Amino acid sequence: MSSQPRALVTGAGGFIGHHLVKRLKAEGYWVRGVDIKHSEYEPTAADEFEIFDLRRRDNCLRAARGVDDVYALASDMGGMGFISSNHAQILRNNLLINLHTLEAAEMNGAKRLLFTSSACIYPEYRQMEAEVTPLKEEDAYPAQPQDAYGWEKLVTERLCMHYREEGRIETRVVRFHNIFGPLGTWDGGREKAPAAMCRKVAIAKLTGNHEIEIWGDGEQTRSFCYIDDCLTGIRKLMESDYRDPLNVGQDRLITINDLADMTAAIAGITITKKHIPGPQGVRGRNSDNTRLRQVLKWEPEIPLEEGMARTYAWIESQVRERMGK
Description:
This protein is α/β, with parallel strands linked by helices. Helices cover 40% and strands 17% of the residues. β1 (6-10), α1 (15-26) and β2 (30-35) form a beta-alpha-beta unit.
């Protein structure tokens, strides 16, 4: 019997899941990837890749067979445009996926499950100002997420806690703060701010029309974490003894206007911003990494400029290919 560790990554056709499969393979794991679609931009590194709709219990049971660790990344999600207009779909689909994945992991005898939660679980009343106080893990309560995506993540965090407390399966919970990087969705409505900004700036550069649209006044703030740091945080948390939810994100706050200017500088152009109505989410959101440093003796290291430069280069290549340039 092989002693090689075996892992399941759900959502392995998506951005973070695809990168996580590669990281686990590099660390010597046998990996099964599962999603409703294949990886879009390059072939998967998984030993097995199965197309399953994880809203169905029987598919989750099949997906979780014979693995030691489960990384539960599967989710119906996207950027603010998608999240703000698909509440019922998001809440229903993701609760079904999460409930069945936890049950399947336990029933198949998995040793540990990591659930990928989100900074969207934090209460809207703590995020009303652009100069927001960084969010600590305990700030989740009293609960008031802004949207259904945040609520389903928070409910599943509770479910993970109860599964662990009742001795059903060891669980870990990571709260992501705006993960970005190459090989992620960059158009179609589900892309997040860094990818959308890279696409807009690349189109501006290649067409010569340097006016780009920004939803709202652009003074809303966020912190953004590059994918390589995200993967390191996932692996460190999964291997740790820490059982409560933990932030993984950068703690550098930046406005969307400044993100646009940074992206334009990377592209070597000057842009004109056109502010238009559109969904903006909370006014400000930032990660407090105090507990992250205490628990994992680590925090994200890749500067935003470096991560955006890598991401922009890849997205510009995608835009060039589509435009035939």
